[in-house]
## 1
Amino acid sequence: MTQEDLRNLFSSIGELESCKLIRDKLTGQSLGYGFVNYVKSTDAEKAISSLNGLRMQQKTIKVSYARPSTPLIKDANLYVSGLPKSMTQEDLQRIFHPFGRIITSRILVEPSTGMSRGVGFVRFDKRPEAENAISSLNGTIPAGAKDPVTVKFANNPSQKNQQVLQSLYAAASPTRRLAAPTTGPLYHQARSFSDLLSNVNMGLGVKRHLPSKCAGCTAPSAASSSCAPNYGICIFVYNLSPETDENILWQLFGPFGAVTSVKVIRDYQTQKCKGYGFVTMTNYEEAFLAVCSLNGYKLGDRVLQMSLTKPSGAA
DNA sequence: TACGATT
């Protein structure tokens, strides 16, 4: 939605004094909210009663009175993971409401099934309420659940966009390409990697740095995995260096076939890779070959290990 | 830091 869309929608109620769509500072992308001032307060009331809850495309818009702008309401948004799949938004609110006024909350779902992904968000009115919720709830086990939940401050959308831009820049940067070839790990990777691929393409056995039993490949029926089985095969990759970025995973797995997503798991504070990541591939045969080929592959000074992700909830 | 998930 553009600023103009916002203006058109809300000016249909009454005369506007001002109207502002909030955008990311770097990318200019809408952050999904904005502020509208009406000349007459009765029009503001009308806007809330007629537009709140309106469904637009995939979204349900929320319209309410803006809270007074103060530093206290900033950074009060929490990210919650490890929730039982059976937990509803109402359950989530029940758990968090003792700590303060909840502005919004939601549980993320798999689009295809509507099933909970076990993660969600809770935005409190005030920062100290959010802090209290973290210290009281993080690591605790909800009633009736068997695993503890993680409660922490949510990532800031502009931080996330910065990461994406940096990663794109790093991939495209000529200095990076010139600096790497003779000494960097990418050079060594590229040479031995192409050897490896030519082996694969000729249908020959694959050299490995470890005597590999192809972990995770022994039971092809285990193709179902915790990560979106409808969307592909999810591969767990371990022993990545702290400097690993998404591009490296794309480069490693892309030649084996269709890769739908890659994820480097990072420490939130340092933004360094925690040593592992995930790659989702569309086709089982290609994923199988990638795991068999890349397990034991030496990237820089590290021997990679990989397997299909641990199935979840299987008896 | 051997299984994430960021509206």
## 2
Amino acid sequence: MTPRPGARQRLLDAAEELFASGGFAGTPVDAVLARAGVAPATLYAHFGSKTGLQAAALAARLRRWDDVWSAAVAAAPDDRARLLAVFDALDAFGTGGTPSRWCAFLDAAAGAPADDGTAVAALAEDTALLRGRLRELAAPVAGEDAAELAEHLLVVVTGALAMALRTDPARATAQGRATAAALVDRWR
Amino acid sequence: MTPRPGARQRLLDAAEELFASGGFAGTPVDAVLARAGVAPATLYAHFGSKTGLQAAALAARLRRWDDVWSAAVAAAPDDRARLLAVFDALDAFGTGGTPSRWCAFLDAAAGAPADDGTAVAALAEDTALLRGRLRELAAPVAGEDAAELAEHLLVVVTGALAMALRTDPARATAQGRATAAALVDRWR
DNA sequence: GTCTATATTGGGATAGAC
DNA sequence: GTCTATCCCAATATAGAC
């Protein structure tokens, strides 16, 4: 059997799970420590601060999201489905670990003080990933208008993420998929 | 000249402005007190807690949003413009007082602990207002499909609000308007 | 109703030993 | 690197007088 992961990895796992479910601001450091089974000083030796831990956890989460989305795209049968696969990925990503209240990257930027650059940077990376891949996937569907369609879909994906605050996440992604489909079908 | 408003009103004004610009969690009570020129005990005598003040401030904000949106609808020349006027209202609402980082209602729900019902209730009222009026305004454009179109637009409006975290608010509403227009024009 | 002054505690971070 | 124990402060809330 695999050995118990080191303290650093356990901290990252605990942070990603708890920050996603309870929100960053709403999750005390103690809760992360308790779940990871680690002493306070260990956290600060590795990450320097709660914010530093958040940055590392978000970086790991972005890689995981990238993988989940890629897999969803690979599983889709045609160009249209590949473009809409982002919503399948959102469903899979949410139900995979602990279901999150809403997007951890938007949560980070919304909760951070105005001068905190780390949260903004993490959200910017997430945005760049979304925008870039949506453009690639939109190309076979919309041709020259790929960038325009991608911007539309970025709004809808972001809307679906935030709609998780207004209603339950499953409904939010389902509605987002429907809205995105309505937009995509303008280009058929 | 108008007399200086009472402490209660000054607290509400200060709270709405500071919570909108700095976020609820990121705004200490002291900052609200300082801006209102009021002593701590006065705040707690009127509102009971910081959360109580937030609830009252959000209620006032919802009324103001309702008015701004109504005015934008009244100023629009035709059915299509009336349906898209929500984005004009968002621009006017944001630039009116202190520009807010993003939607105060979504912020409240995102930042509140899971058991806090007041923030969720305030967001629910905001959602009901959006959904209801979008349906009314969609009727002349989409007829029987008004409810369906309204749900699409609710996602887009929510997306525009959250996009203010990814980019600056002016770009967010502009993109939202464009995306909404693309959807509305499916029903032309 | 409003003030001054103070109580209380949750929670992020550190000191120093092992 | 990791632990135990502790510090420190920010921030919410209250006591009691006017």
